[in-house]
Amino acid sequence: MKKFLLLVVLSLFWLQLFSGPKKVQNFSLDNKMQVILQEIKEFPYINFSVLVKNGGAVDCESEGLPLLTARLLLKGTKKLDAAKLQEQLDLLGARIDASVDEDFTIFSGGVLAKNAPEFFRLLADILFNPALQEDEFQKERNKMIQGLKEVLNSPQALVFNYFKHLFFQGHPASRLFRGTEKSLQQLAPATLKEYYQRVYQPAQLVMSFAGKISRAELQKLIQKNFAALKNSTLSSPAKVSDFELKKSSCYLINKPDTAQAYFVLGFSGKKFGFAGNEEYELFNTVFGGRFTSWLNAELRIKRGLTYGARSQMSSFASGGVFYITSYTKNEQLAEMLTIVQELIKKVNEQGLTQEELLSSKNYLQGQMPRKNESWQAIALNNARLFCYQLPFDYYEQLLKRIDGAGLESVNDFARQLMQNKKYILVVVGKAEILKPALEKFSEFELLEADLNF
Prior knowledge:
This protein is an alpha+beta fold. Helix content is 46%, strand content 18%. It contains 17 helices and 12 strands. A 6-stranded mixed β-sheet has the order 1-2-6-3-5-4, sandwiched between helices. Strands 9-10-8-11-7-12 form a 6-stranded mixed β-sheet, sandwiched between helices. The longest helix is centred in the first third of the chain and has 19 residues, at 134-152.
């Protein structure tokens, strides 16, 4: 009997300890800064994501300025220079990184829970009391320019830079997050400071935390470090018009020193959180989203043309793109593009089978939780969902919809996506070899590799 009671007590203890994260909570300050919390008690760490509602395609005509500004914030405050700031982060067991996408500037990282009070003071200092020193500005700008030069030596990175620029041509989403050498050279410290003062307002921030911290403790720390901050202006970022691909085009980017040809073929996609996301996930898993996908099976496994081929939807507030990408020897590009055309035809004429649909469901139910339930992913996803006005249980509900989706609806979605006659094809490689191959498929514009668009 005693052994039985001991087992019951231990079972209840472990059930409580590992019962998973609590319900998502959120609150706002009087200055309109938004705060989100998902408490996870199991381990002594707090992950966070801070979203600034101003990304590469929002209210900023200077390519590279949002990312340069974010990186400069991590290079010192008015109290701590760059070296001492990093020392403090190390001392607290903390990390913080900066990135940019179409809609947001993103600061992500984590800290040991026991050091939360000191870290929140430091985070407020980083975001709202940066030094923005001119010497650090020059260093970071030079690093970004050097990074662009390295892109020119990477055909894979180069093809995606060109594709983004050419697919969204004429729309703010065409701006490169890292900028161009020309756009970065034209930036001045005064321009960056003006941008920082206009954009980094409490009302423009969404802060999301996932980890070992209670709501009461978080509210206390947020109130102490952020509540007194004022908005110098309450103007919202200018609304970005929805993207529409107007015509098909093909581009050949000449890079004579590469033996491989890299391509990206893109079609109009969907906005973030679009209806039918479950049909997309099921279709794309079979078409190009896993190792045994149609694309990878035909191009890699059966024919050995490449080491990898995939397809993916990239979505944001004002649009999206569905793209197919791979690489092969320059001499084999024509064969590869022919196979891709045949697979697109297979989508439109045959579609997925019931067996493939079941396999896709099982695959996604195994993989999606792993992808979305890391602490860092939880913090970032919750912030994104809040900004896009989607429910916090969006991904849980998506899994349920995936389980209930039927074959007909999945194939209908796939056909609508792939029957679009408008596309953009970008190829990077040795033009001397590739020109005859591309001429069989489409008229194309020949460009020399250069990131100063």
